[in-house]
Every structure is written in structure tokens, then in C-alpha cells.
């Protein structure tokens, strides 16, 4: 059963044979999207914490490697340039900006690194560290090390340069007459 909102009243309409699965449904026969539906969707999006690692990811044990000097100056997955002198690392799934404590299990050296790239995508490796990270952990000469990776700090999420505005209007003419508040504020600032 579909509903049509016409002239301030909600009418139930049974689908006709011309409205088959996969065919476009006329706008006046689509279910209405209410303000409460939009609010619930917005709250669900905002309450999803991408920085919270699952318990399976909060502590991992496996093999670490380090970036070759060849990658110095190239862009990482988060857009910044790889600096072999910085204490950064690549992980397959942790959010960018997450702080991890990496411990070399052979010599028990430990250091804090920041996730800024994706990888490694070779064999059973769980983390790729920068050259500075490998030096601090003491495995530059070996190239690989058995490590424990612990999440110690959530990713820092900066506030975006945009905003989402949700407005409920009774008819479409009101939408074309009133500019969005964000656009009006931007115009006022100029």
C-alpha cells in the first residue's frame, strides 16, 4: 500500500499493475520521508563512532615490516606525504589518526605510532611502520619483526568545513523561495 499526500491529507492508494518491481514509481506515490525519519538517520550517522576499534582490533599480534625509502615523499592513503622520519604506520582497517603502541616482541622495545596509511597487503603482516618507527623498535637491519599492536588513542576527528541542514516544508514553492540558512550566512559574511 502506498500513500499520497495531496492537499493536506494523506490518502492510501493501492498499486496498479503498471507499477511493477523495478519500474519507476511516480513521485506522488512514493512513501513520504518525514522529518522524524531524517532526524533518526542523522542521529544514527552522527552516533556511529568510527574511531572505536573492535576488541579484535584493539590488540593484535603478528609480523611488522617497514616502508622502503622509495616511498619517501609519496602520498599516503589519507592524503599526507609519507615521511620516513615520522613515527607513522599503515594498518588495514584502523581509522586514520588512531594512535597505536607497537611492541617488538623480540627485544620488548615499544613506541607510539599514528596510523596514516593503508596496508600492508603482503602475507601475514599486520602493520607497516615508517623507517623511524622501525629504527625505534630495533628491526631496521632485519626488515621484519614479531610485534604486538595495541590501540591506545582514538582517531582525532576534526570538525568539517560543512554543515547539514534539514528543513521540512509543506510545499515545494517555499523551498525555491527561501535560501538555505548556510548559504544566507555565507552571503552575509561577504
How many whole angstroms does the radius of gyration measure? 26 Å
Helix content: 10-25%
Strand portion, in percent? Answer: 25-35%
Q: Output the structural class.
A: alpha+beta
Major β-sheet annotation: 6 strands, mixed, barrel
Total domain modules = 2
What number is the mean pLDDT? 75
Distance between the termini: 49 Å
Characterise the protein shown here.
The protein is α+β, with helices and mostly antiparallel strands and 190 residues long. It has two domains: 1-48, no CATH class; 55-153, RlpA-like domain (Barwin-like endoglucanases), CATH 2.40.40.10. The protein has five helices and eight strands. The protein has helices at residues 35-47, 55-58, 131-137, 172-177, 181-189; strands at residues 2-6, 9-13, 59-66, 88-90, 99-104, 110-117, 125-129, 144-153. The protein has a six-stranded mixed beta barrel. A hairpin with a 5-residue loop joins strand 5 and strand 6. The radius of gyration is 26 Å and the shape is elongated. The two termini are 49 Å apart. Mean pLDDT is 75; it is low at 47-55.
Summarize the structure.
By secondary structure, the protein is of the alpha+beta class.
Amino acid at each position: 500500500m502506498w500513500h499520497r499526500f495531496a492537499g493536506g491529507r494523506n490518502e492510501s492508494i493501492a498499486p496498479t499493475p503498471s507499477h511493477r518491481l523495478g519500474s519507476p514509481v511516480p513521485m506522488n506515490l512514493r512513501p513520504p520521508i518525514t522529518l522524524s525519519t531524517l532526524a533518526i538517520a542523522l542521529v544514527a550517522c552522527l552516533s556511529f563512532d568510527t574511531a572505536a576499534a573492535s576488541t579484535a582490533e584493539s590488540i593484535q599480534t603478528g609480523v611488522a615490516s617497514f616502508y622502503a625509502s622509495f616511498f619517501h615523499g609519496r602520498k599516503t592513503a589519507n592524503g599526507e606525504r609519507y615521511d620516513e622520519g615520522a613515527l607513522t604506520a599503515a594498518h588495514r582497517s584502523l581509522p586514520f589518526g588512531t594512535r597505536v603502541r607497537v611492541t617488538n616482541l623480540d627485544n620488548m622495545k615499544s613506541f607510539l605510532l599514528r596510523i596514516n596509511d593503508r596496508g600492508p597487503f603482503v602475507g601475514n603482516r599486520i602493520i607497516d611502520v615508517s623507517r623511524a618507527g622501525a629504527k625505534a623498535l630495533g628491526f631496521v637491519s632485519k626488515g621484519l619483526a614479531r610485534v604486538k599492536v595495541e590501540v591506545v588513542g582514538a582517531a582525532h576527528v576534526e570538525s568539517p568545513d560543512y554543515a547539514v541542514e534539514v528543513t521540512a516544508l509543506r510545499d515545494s514553492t517555499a523551498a525555491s523561495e527561501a535560501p538555505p540558512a548556510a548559504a544566507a550566512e555565507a552571503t552575509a559574511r561577504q
